[in-house]
């Protein structure tokens, strides 16, 4: 079996990390693989030490002349979907799509063709599956969730972070500053909790286009800090007392899994695929999207109740095996074999 992974993303974020996780797991199982990615994408460097052939491709209409001896193409991002469709037109090579976001599909003819002709459209959550089927009823869909990445942790560095914020309760939100990630809602909750939980500090770990607007909104709040993008995000996650995940729209929410791996309780929203991970009161707390008051109250309740925190952490421990990289890879291998048999 030879799998060609196509990921034409311009940067390296959650989808690219999941692509890398899968490639690593398949390599450990002896699967022959090729990765096609944009020139300069960190994915290319990340697989350099793995037994994976690589090709560079800057656009989905390019890179088709040479062909390849792969049996199946796995499209990991939106542009890669069209690369897979063109290969299917040219060589009848079957392709699989992984759809990672729950925003609506385009309704144009090419998009409908791409999703309709895929041998399978893998959706990270039931919410994404519903979105795909709403637009392309003929799409052959299947749910395979993301895996946790297992970010490395240096206990000395975790200790240093805790010492830097000695006496503080660390509430973190991790990810790019995008409107649908709900940072503005977190800031409203922070304003409500500033006097009620004076020892708590909200750390925003990331960067992005909404940063300036969020910093303006945060003016005057003494319990908010913009800590920037962190290469060692595992250390920062491990140092948190609580992860805040208030997305208005979310494909699944793999950062929740990373927090659970570090035994950090989670307060999140009932948005997109998040309820596929979190069962309210069992392994986290869920509130309605955009409800800053409910978010503040959920945060306060976790901070105030040691037994609740312990219960949510234990629930996270029980949840993680369903989202392991090994289980994710086995699900994809089973899918590949089913398509090629």
From TrEMBL:
Residues annotated as transmembrane: none
Record bears the keyword DNA repair: no
Protein name (record): Glycosyltransferase involved in cell wall bisynthesis
Natural source organism: Marinobacter mobilis
SUPFAM superfamilies named among the record's database cross-references: UDP-Glycosyltransferase/glycogen phosphorylase (SSF53756)
InterPro entries linked: Glyco_trans_1, Glyco_trans_4-like_N
Glycosyltransferase subfamily 4-like N-terminal domain span: 13-145
GO BP terms in the entry: carbohydrate derivative metabolic process
GO molecular function: glycosyltransferase activity
Keyword annotations from UniProtKB, A to Z: Transferase
Domain of life according to the entry: Bacteria
A matching Pfam family: Glyco_transf_4
Domain Glycosyl transferase family stretches: 156-314
């Amino acid at each position: 079996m030879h799998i060609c992974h196509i990921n034409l993303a311009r940067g390296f974020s959650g989808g690219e990390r999941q692509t890398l996780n899968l490639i690593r797991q398949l390599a450990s199982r002896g699967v022959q693989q090729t990765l096609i990615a944009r020139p300069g994408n960190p994915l290319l460097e990340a697989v350099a030490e793995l037994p994976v052939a690589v090709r560079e491709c800057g656009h989905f209409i390019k890179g088709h002349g040479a062909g390849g001896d792969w049996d199946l193409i796995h499209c990991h991002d939106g542009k890669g979907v069209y690369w897979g469709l063109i290969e299917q037109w040219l060589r009848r090579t079957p392709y699989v799509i992984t759809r990672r976001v729950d925003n609506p599909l385009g309704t144009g003819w090419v998009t409908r063709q791409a999703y309709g002709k895929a041998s399978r459209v893998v959706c990270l959550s039931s919410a994404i599956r519903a979105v795909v089927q709403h637009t392309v009823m003929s799409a052959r869909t299947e749910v395979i969730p993301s895996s946790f990445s297992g970010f490395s942790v240096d206990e000395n560095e975790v200790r240093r972070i805790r010492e830097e914020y000695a006496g503080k309760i660390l509430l973190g939100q991790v990810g790019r500053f995008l409107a649908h990630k709900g940072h503005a809602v977190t800031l409203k909750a922070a304003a409500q909790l500033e006097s009620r939980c004076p020892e708590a500090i909200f750390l925003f770990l990331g960067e992005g286009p909404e940063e300036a607007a969020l910093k303006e909104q945060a003016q005057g709040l003494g319990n908010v800090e913009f800590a920037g993008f962190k290469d060692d995000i595992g250390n920062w996650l491990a140092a948190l007392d609580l992860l805040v995940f208030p997305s208005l729209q979310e494909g699944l929410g793999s950062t929740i899994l990373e927090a659970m791996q570090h035994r950090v309780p989670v307060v999140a929203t009932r948005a997109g695929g998040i309820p596929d991970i979190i069962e309210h009161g069992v392994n986290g707390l869920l509130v309605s999207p955009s409800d800053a008051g409910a978010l503040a109250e959920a945060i306060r309740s976790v901070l105030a109740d040691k037994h609740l925190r312990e219960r949510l952490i234990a629930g996270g421990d029980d949840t993680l095996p369903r989202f392991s990289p090994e289980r994710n890879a086995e699900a994809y291998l089973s899918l590949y074999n089913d398509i090629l048999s």
